[in-house]
Amino acid sequence: MSRNTFFISCPYDTYSGYGARARDLVKAIIELDKYDVKLLPQRWGGTAWGFCDNNPEWSFLHNYKYPHPQLTEKPDIWMQITIPNEFQSIGKYNIGVTAGIESNLCQGTWIEGVNRMDLTLVSSNHAKQVFEKSTFQKQDKNQQPLGEIKLEKPVEVLFEGADLTKYFEMSSQEISTLRKNSPLIQSLDSIPESFAYLFVGHWIQGDFGEDRKNVGLLIKAFLEVFKNKKTAPALILKTSSAVSSYMDRDEILKKIHAIRKTIKANSIPNIYLLHGEFSDNEINELYNHPKVKSMVSLTKGEGFGRPLLEFSLSKKPIIASGWSGHTDFLTKDFSLLIGGNLKNVHPSAANDWLMKESQWFEPNHNEVGMYLKDVFENYKKYTDRGKRQAYYSKTNFSWDKMKEKIDILFTQYIPDLPKKVELKLPQIKKIELPKKPVLNG
User: Which of 47, 371, 409, 428 lies 20 to 30 Å (CA to CA) from residue 11?
Assistant: First the structure.
């Protein structure tokens, strides 16, 4: 029997967060072995292209690429992995997939996009709640009311499962074995500090203390807490402005230097920058290096927070803002979640998706300093919590668990669709007609 065609439009071949999400989802759907999967590759902003060619373990996805530049058939199932205002209803059944929004309110065009689909999958309960609570009054060009825009179609949470074959705790012996051939491990070995905090994420638009990942405030807080200390930890920043170039690296260094100059002290702790594209293996080496003791994120909002989940598998403690997507997997019992308040998105950080009328998280500055100081001075107190968080993450938020939930959701929501059936006529034996008799006269 033929299978339903399952067309997926997504940026699976790009170096982006959405690209990683797309690859994981596509692989899971292929492995369900229930659909005839066809991929339509899409770009993602200005991020680099060609991920699958540069990462051979993903090159198999090219085998599923739709061979035509445009659709020549109506898909049975149509899926788009993108932001909701780009959702289109093209198939007999339509699924949208999005990380959602990092603030507490989304654009009306996003609600309209979700309503065009039969089902939308989001990465976190935070994102689902934003879609459920966001309502708008629609008006015509003369400002006359046309009705209310509100959620009308189902939205379900499908978390971004961690690949346990790529992210896991490594022993000191494993690190030692890799050391000879790993420039990253050698570089980390060379720093004088034995204790380092790690931040991973993009440093994007926004004035000081207003960018979404709150990198500027993290640097300032770290320097203030550990200035003039005889023994101080380091801060390692794995960051960029979404591109990997020498110019971008220089701009990041200038920003760090500008913040350092605002600190009045006799001595200030060191900050190290890691910039550029890293493989999953290299990132896992970074997470497991013995000098990296804890991950810290003062993020204002996350649709999910994938690096926090993947780092948690190293069994090391995490300090993070206590709001938005990552609190689905980071629990207050096992991780250090900073309190705070919601405040409006600053105009310098607002864009076509983040509305300045919406709000996101402002961490309590006193708690930031307290946690940074206490984890450094009383590290052993938090190691057991790191191990418990790792177990919780591994048990509930793996890629395999995500695949199981995809199957459950598809079984629940996708209806029985008519399939193309090849018409096979029965073979009829050739009938020999009697020959006309020949008369002899």
Answer: 409
